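Lab meeting, item 3. Inverse folding demo.
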């Protein structure tokens, strides 16, 4: 059979996990003949990146993956990469003066302490997250059956009904209080988790709150060698052309009844442009992220994308932790690998954790605080010298990455559109429901399916209702 797609040209702007996964899924759906160009102005991987300390690499951006993140799991398998399990380490919560919660070596003792301090809040929370994860997992079935959604709202509705959609509109604290979780538990456990994962507080929407809580469960992993290997691997697997250039304009070029998108870009040496049938923008378009892309020739003009991204600074520090600051004068007795913090006025860091390199050899062990180790500190602003001196007795190196990390979440925000124009799509709207590697991967698969069905006028595969039932009755 002759492919009807010969001559069709797709382009993706951004080679993070979202863009490279889109290239992979477009190739799966549109077949071997189409041309797929991926533009990247920085480095492949985007917010998946590493920094080198003492000849070892450490994740400075997206680092952990949930065991039920099936797209990420599938990429790793297809690319022949290896899993790297998190190395266990104890966590404590610091309120600026003292530790208010300390993990011990004894699981039963920890359970008892939780129950003593917070009643059954932690069981309620566990059940809530499990239920949300179970519903979220429906996406894999829908996508395996080829169904696509024209908006993030439609996708969420199909997974968890209006309950899911409402979770993007009301705050986490409100939802948890309604569930019967105590205010004390919210302040002392939930808030620290939101601070380490999204650098924000408990007024973030409940849906992203649940994603963040899933990211605090025990069953987490990463990619041996660095998570960004998935991005370079997917580009190769997709046989996509990587163009190292910054896209500056996307304009609509009409020719009679039909039209294409003209993408203009600058490389280090030249300015050039190319025409495409389908364009996927796989980078945030909010003003403070500075993609540098302008849209021209659209009538009416494309609406401005609202909102802004939240700055999180990741400092990778090689040095000696100042255990005295945490009231442990003898570092040999300091048992914690991760320090989370409560939402306390004036506290200058969100979290500090001893980190493992992306290549863990068989005999790897975490450094004890009396030895020089590598730590990751998340903070809202770059750490001042006196702040570094507070957290570390001394240090050899500090590497700072200032991320426009994830959406700055408010609770009454509309989710940005997926379809910007007939064959022009935007991937990163999904981050406003929740920002994680798997969320970008789910959005990538959805856009590949959506683009395919819209191109082929298979509208019955888009925004179908009652999919659980439909799938059960499909052969
Ligand atoms: C510090 C930090 C920690 C995180 N931790 C986790 C975690 O543990 N687990 C998890 O699941 N998620 C985590 N995340 C979130 C996760 O990293 C992101 O959700 C995900 O990587 C987003 O991928 P993306 O491809 O959608 O966007 P990006 O990775 O931002 O990719 C967009 C790409 O587009 C390129 N680009 C932009 N404009 C242009 C242009 N005009 N022309 C050409 N190229 C352009 C950019 O250079 C970039 O490479 C973390 C994020 C940060 C910042
Ligand atoms: C998408 C679903 C259902 C689950 C994803 C859960 C997950 C892995 C969430 C992580 C979210 C996130 C932005 C974490 C940032 S910090 C990560 C880590 N603590 C670090 O120190 O780097």
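The presenter then showed the designed sequence:
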């Amino acid at each position: 059979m002759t492919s009807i797609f010969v001559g069709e040209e797709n382009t993706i702007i951004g080679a993070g996990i979202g863009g490279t996964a889109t290239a992979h899924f477009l190739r799966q759906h549109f077949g071997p003949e189409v041309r797929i160009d991926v533009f990247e102005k920085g480095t492949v991987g985007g917010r998946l990146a590493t920094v080198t300390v003492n000849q070892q690499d450490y994740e400075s951006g997206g680092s952990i993956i949930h065991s039920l993140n099936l797209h990420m799991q599938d990429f790793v398998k297809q690319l022949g990469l290896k899993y790297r399990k998190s190395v266990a380490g104890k966590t404590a919560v610091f309120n600026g003066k003292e530790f208010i919660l300390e993990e011990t070596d004894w699981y039963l003792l920890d359970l008892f302490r939780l129950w003593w301090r917070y009643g059954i809040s932690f069981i309620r929370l566990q059940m809530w997250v499990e239920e949300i994860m179970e519903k979220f997992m429906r996406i894999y079935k829908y996508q395996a059956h080829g169904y696509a959604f024209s908006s993030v709202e439609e996708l969420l509705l199909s997974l968890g009904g209006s309950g899911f959609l409402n979770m993007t509109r009301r705050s986490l604290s409100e939802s948890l209080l309604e569930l019967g979780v105590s205010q004390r538990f919210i302040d002392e456990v939930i808030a620290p988790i939101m601070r380490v994962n999204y650098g924000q507080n408990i007024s973030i929407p409940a849906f992203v709150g649940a994603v963040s809580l899933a990211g605090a469960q025990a069953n987490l992993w990463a990619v041996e060698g660095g998570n960004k290997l998935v991005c370079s691997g997917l580009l190769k697997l997709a046989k996509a052309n990587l163009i190292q250039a910054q896209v500056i304009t996307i304009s609509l070029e009409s020719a009679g009844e039909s039209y294409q998108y003209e993408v203009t870009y600058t490389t280090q040496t030249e300015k050039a442009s190319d025409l495409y049938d389908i364009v996927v923008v796989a980078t945030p378009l909010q003003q403070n992220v500075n993609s540098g892309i302008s849209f021209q020739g659209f009538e009416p003009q494309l609406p401005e994308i609202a909102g802004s991204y939240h700055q999180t600074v990741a400092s990778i520090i090689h040095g000696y932790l100042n255990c005295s600051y945490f009231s442990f004068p003898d570092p040999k007795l300091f048992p914690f690998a991760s320090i989370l913090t409560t939402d306390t006025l004036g506290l200058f860091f969100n979290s500090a954790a001893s980190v493992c390199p992306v290549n863990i050899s068989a005999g790897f062990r975490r450094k004890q605080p009396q030895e020089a180790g590598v730590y990751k500190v998340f903070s809202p602003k770059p750490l001042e010298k006196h702040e570094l001196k507070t957290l570390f007795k001394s240090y050899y190196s500090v590497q700072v990455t200032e991320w426009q990390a994830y959406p700055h979440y408010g609770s009454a925000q509309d989710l940005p559109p997926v379809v910007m124009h007939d064959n022009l799509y935007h991937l990163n709207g999904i981050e406003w429901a929740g920002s994680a590697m798997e969320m970008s991967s789910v959005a990538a698969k959805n856009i590949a399916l959506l683009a395919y069905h819209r191109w082929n006028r298979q509208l019955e595969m888009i925004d179908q209702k009652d999919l659980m039932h439909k799938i059960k009755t499909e052969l």
